[in-house]
Write a structure and sequence with these properties.
By secondary structure, the chain is an all-alpha fold. About 65% of the residues lie in helices and about 0% in strands. Helix 7 packs antiparallel against helix 8, helix 13 runs antiparallel to helix 14 and helix 14 packs antiparallel against helix 15. The longest helix has 26 residues.
Length: about 300
Amino acid sequence: MKTCIFILLIVVNSITYAQTLTIEQREKCKNDIKFNFEMAQQGYGEAEFILAQKFHKSDPYDDTYKDYWGIYDSKNPFVAASYWFKKACEHNWIPAYSIYSNYCFYERGNTKGGVEESLKWIEKALEKDSLNWDLKANEAICTWIINEDSFYTDKDFFYPYLIKVSHKMSGAKSEFIEKYALICYHSINNKKTYPDYAFYFFLCAYNTSMSSNNPSIKALFYLYDCFHKGYGTEKNEEQAIECILMIINNLNIEVDWSNQNSVNNVTAFILNEINNQISKDKEEFSHYKSFKDIFFLY
């Protein structure tokens, strides 16, 4: 009886904690699918992750690994990938957390749990990598989708800390902040607009884009509009003109500043582009019914 209990404890331990392969085992797992499959079946988290990656990258029309992934679904290798990514997560293999969260979010490979399960693994990943911007953005996205009403009622959460500090974080993407700004500007599902927050978020989006040396023209379009109309901020034609000049500079548009016709033509072109962009966004947002229509994981 004692021997049986000892063996049981070993099995339980292998399921609870991630097992790292030796260098030789790791290389063999990468090159030998049969060995990789056997090691994964023994509960090695790293082997499970390597196996899942192979299935994740498999072509359903390529028979290379089909004898292995076809066991789970004869037409879709993502089903096998999902199974083994989940196993790797359950065995605490950290690199699997963020990938499996994507599988949950998009329900890829018949993965169950949806956004709630995705958030669970994103938060697990953040426990190990708390400064990862992509993970933080994905956490915010899932949180908004799960509790959409908090966007309109929770004033403390309305200024997500992540948006405030994104311009200081490596890898931050201004498009993420622009989407929040666009929701405030255009609204979704005929809900209220928030001019002050729209202006603030477009400003944050532009600052973040500048920190990555990739200026957001869309943010400048909307900042011009806000300054020109006094939307969410005081009306300021000088600032509006400054936005036009920044757009000209960032788009490398040639203009003869000594020729008023040239200046007028370029200005008219940019104003037309701004109006077209805002009209296009308004039309697009009129079809959205929820946050999940707008946000996708990074």
